[in-house]
Amino acid sequence: MDIVCRLSLRSTTKVLAIAMMAVVGGLVSTSKAYTAPVVTGTKTNLDSGWTLHPATDASNKVIGYLAQQTSGTAAPNGYSVVWLERQANGDFSMKGYDGVNLVDAARKVQAASSVAGLFVHTEFAELLYNTPSLFDAEPMSGFTVMFSGLAVTDPLQPIASEIPPEWMEALVEFGSLGATSLSASTVDHTVDCVPTDKLNATRIMLTPDIESILATDGVQVSQAVNAFFTCCFPWTRTTYFETPSGPWISTNPTGTTCNYSRPTTRHEITCTTSITCATTCVSVIVGAGTPQTGSCPGNPSGNCPVSPPAGCP
């Protein structure tokens, strides 16, 4: 089943929640055992050719974004993977990665963090966390601090904050240590409808939406945050989630603990936001998901019923 909804930025999260509920009967939940969809991954494609993969903590707060260039010409001496880390004041620091492998970069960011499971809500989470070499990664190895779009080691760093975005783009194209399009957006203050640079405005708009989608109770976007803006920068966000598609079935006939499993269906919801802040969302079923598992205490006879008792697992 497909659905289409149109909304403004200020009500994005609320209507996204309604859209998800219309398709699968509930919002995201990882703590209310199996009664609602479980988000398995989300990403945002910017119109600049970059994809943002969120890093989150256990409370679904966005810690940062691991950005990867997915289209366009890569900077000849610069970066196609960039770590954007959220700071205490809400701004984001920027570090360029000297490699091109997104998962390798994620391993090094994870190794440097005290927060477990930073990237559990990304499409590469299974590959990342099921690979033993995760724990062999050298924390933040290969990353270089960037300010105003250029690496601190770049000879032109002292003037980076003073040049217009088109100059920044040209510098990166001709060899400065930056990132195609992304660096220019950090010094782009030409849009009158936002009070900050283009990249920072995008992250400020996007972050509450990501946190709301992942929140167990569907917390709405803060109206105070989005009230600063009268226009949007185009992006397309894709979120994957799974819902139960069959009954619980016993996987062991006897035992002191009875284990159960049931199939799931994988859904994909894609929302595209335009410069006018109008958003169109489409949800489709993309196939079978990962089976859900659970367990219940065994009964005195030691036999496990084919179907679990009410309220369990």
What report would you give on this structure?
- The chain is an alpha+beta fold.
- The protein has two domains: 1-47 and 198-313, no CATH class; 48-188, no CATH class.
- Helix content is 20%, strand content 29%.
- It has helices at residues 12-24, 102-112, 125-129, 165-173, 182-186, 198-214, 223-226; strands at residues 4-7, 38-46, 50-56, 62-69, 81-86, 92-97, 143-147, 150-151, 235-244, 249-250, 257-262, 264-273, 279-288, 292-297.
- The longest helix is centred in the middle third of the chain and has 17 residues, at 198-214.
- The model is unreliable at 1-35 and 216-228 (pLDDT under 50).
Query: Main beta sheet: strand number and arrangement?
Result: 11 strands, antiparallel
Computed over alpha carbons, the radius of gyration is 22 Å
Morphology: elongated
- Trace the largest sheet across and list its strands: 1-13-12-9-2-3-4-5-6-7-8
Strand residue percentage: 25-35%
Distance between the termini: 29 Å
Task: Write down the domain tally.
Answer: 2
Order of helices and strands, N to C? EHEEEEEHHEEHHHHEEEEEE
Mean pLDDT across the residues is 80
Q: Which runs of at least 5 residues are low in confidence (pLDDT < 50)? A: 1-35, 216-228
Share in helix = 10-25%
Which structural class fits the helix and strand makeup? alpha+beta
Total number of β-strand segments? 14
Put simply, the count of helices is 7
